[in-house]
Every structure is written in structure tokens, then in C-alpha cells.
Amino acid sequence: MDKATLYKKGDMEIRVLRSTCIGAATCVVYAPSTFDLDDDSIAIVKNGQWDSLEKIIAAAQSCPVVAIEVYVKGKKVYPKG
Ligand code: SF4
Prior knowledge:
By secondary structure, the chain is α+β, with helices and mostly antiparallel strands. The protein has one domain (4-78): Alpha-Beta Plaits. 19% of the residues lie in helices and 33% in strands. The radius of gyration is 11 Å and the shape is globular. It starts with a strand and ends with a strand. Iron/sulfur cluster binds at residues 21-27, 43, 62-63, 65, 67-68.
């Protein structure tokens, strides 16, 4: 079972599949106001102002192991299908 951590802000939700994340950190490069790595080099979502939805999706798409899921108003917008 994958341990997912859920973060919510407004209409947006980000789910980080922590046991899938390999700490590649490309999400941090694409959306630095949203993602960071914790002390175990696993992605977390920051408090405060997030990046735009476009940047967050680009960050999710950049993840080599698809450890980031993005939802808007409860609908999954990435990954599709
Ligand atoms: S890009 Fe994916 S694997 Fe890399 S830190 Fe972000 S969530 Fe983890």
C-alpha cells in the first residue's frame, strides 16, 4: 500500500505518494514554491503560496516515478487515466 500525503489549498489538492518518491527533486525545480524535500529526501508540499496549476502539473509530469497526483475540485487532472 502506498502511503500518500494529501495537501489541500482552495480548489486544488496535491497527493504525494511518499513510498513511491525517490527524491529525484525535479518537482522542486519545476514548482519551487510548492514542493520541497524533507530530511529523508522525500517530497513534501510547502505551506504558503503555491505555484500556478500549470507549474504544479509540469512538476508532476517531471516526476520520473509519477509520485505526484493533482486534483482540482475533487477531479484528478494528473495523471490522467
Ligand atoms: S520528482 Fe517525484 S521522485 Fe522526485 S522528489 Fe518529486 S515526487 Fe519525489
